[in-house]
Every structure is written in C-alpha cells, then in structure tokens.
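Subject: for your reference before the review

Hello V.,

The reviewers asked for a structural picture of the protein, and I figured it would be easier to keep everything in one thread rather than splitting it across files. Below is the amino acid sequence we used in the manuscript, unchanged from the supplementary table.
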Amino acid sequence: MRYYYDPIDTIFNDLFDTWTGSGRKYPSVDVYETKDAYIIEAEVAGYDNEKINLSVDKHILTISSEEVKKELKEGTSKIAEEIKLPAFERSFSLPDGTDEEKISADYKNGILLITLPKLEKAIAKRIEVKINK
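And here is what came back from the structure prediction:
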C-alpha cells in the first residue's frame, strides 16, 4: 500500500501548522494486514461519522471530511481555542488483489476502521508438493 507524499508538504505543514497543533493536515493512520484483509485505522476524533467520506476511484481509496465548525453555546464566550478540526483528504493506493466491492468501514470512539478484504484468489493457499523417488 502506497501513501501519497510530497516533501514540499512537510515544509508547509511546519510553517502553517494546520492539524491540531501537530503540523499535520490529515489524520494519523495505522495500517495492518491479515490473512484475509488489509485494515486501516484512522484517528478522526471529533468528526461526525456521517460527514466522513470514503471513496474508491481507479484503485485509490480516499478518506475526507469538511472542516468542523464549532459554535458557542448561548451565554458563553471563548477564552482559549486549541482544538481544531480542519478539512482533510488522505489517499491510499490499494494493493492488487483488494476486493473493492466489499470495502467496509466502522466508526467507534474516534477511530475510523476501514476493512479492505482480499479477493479469494489473492489469498495464498498452501499446496503440498509430493516428490517421487
């Protein structure tokens, strides 16, 4: 699985610090592989699961969301604001053998769990080889 990365982005991230004070402009992810699937866990705490978009186009999985605007409750005034939920978009090149029709996602406790099942034929099977003597 390949990530889209542009070294110039790192320079601008450091200068403009756009993701919750860490210099990132997209959520952190962990990527795992099991026998049957690839798993992506994306940290998207604070985003409404209904506004997180997943799409697949030409073997590219894209996760995105619009900026979350926080509104003050009536009778309150802002003293400090450190929590920012900017718009983001992050793309991943899907590995060969991914069953794109069966991709699923779950959102729980601020973690988006995306399951990318492998095609049956792409799952390695052990074949016993008998050698005649």
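For the response letter, the relevant points are probably these. The chain is about 10% helix and 35% strand. The first strand starts at residue 2 and ends at 3.

Happy to draft the paragraph if you're swamped.

O.
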